[in-house]
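Field reference: sequence -> structure
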Amino acid sequence: MADLVNTYRAERLRTNAAVSRATVRAWDRLHLEQGEAITETLRLVEAGQARAVQLADGYLAARRRQARAGSSAPAGLDADRYTVARLRRADAREVYSRPFGALAGQLAQGSPLPAALASGRASVARLALTDLQLAQTHAARDWMAEPANQVYGYERVLGGGESCPLCVVASQQIYYREDLMPIHERCQCSVSPLFGEHPGGGNVPRERDSGVRVVDDPEIGPRLMGEGWAA
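Structure field:
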């Protein structure tokens, strides 16, 4: 199982890095042409989302096979259900216009152009990585919710490298299959499905004395927050 989890993680991180680099290059090349930049960025992000859905579908099916709960054939999740507009429930072009608004605002306040451009570049990359993560979490939730897949819950699998403290705490509980995994911006965690019959009991309460809480973000859904952070 560990090899499959690690392979899936590596493929996801490779996709995330490629999309992040491409969106940054698009920003550097097209930041003076907002409409064209947004069109190109959305093309890159939604191609990455389609890849994230494909990877999640294949990984979960392979896990099902390992658990002897069914075949390893992917479900064939429809990538069109996991686009920026559908997942955020917002206009995709408006979402990706935000870095340009921030750029204009910083310049109006007297920030040097290189600093303002760097801030916009980071904002575009942050949006892109979050949208790829949303595609993965929603696809995984939908796959696991199918009764035929015999999943009763899942565990959170930390992303590569040094994980943030919020994710470390959130990984110490079991979630029901219908729960959408709470994330934060740039989050790169994934899921490990639990197959078979529920052993009894419930999942650990989402809000506890752990320094972590979950709030419902109108765009990204369940969001991990540190204790004392403003929602």
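Note: The first helix runs from residue 2 to 30.
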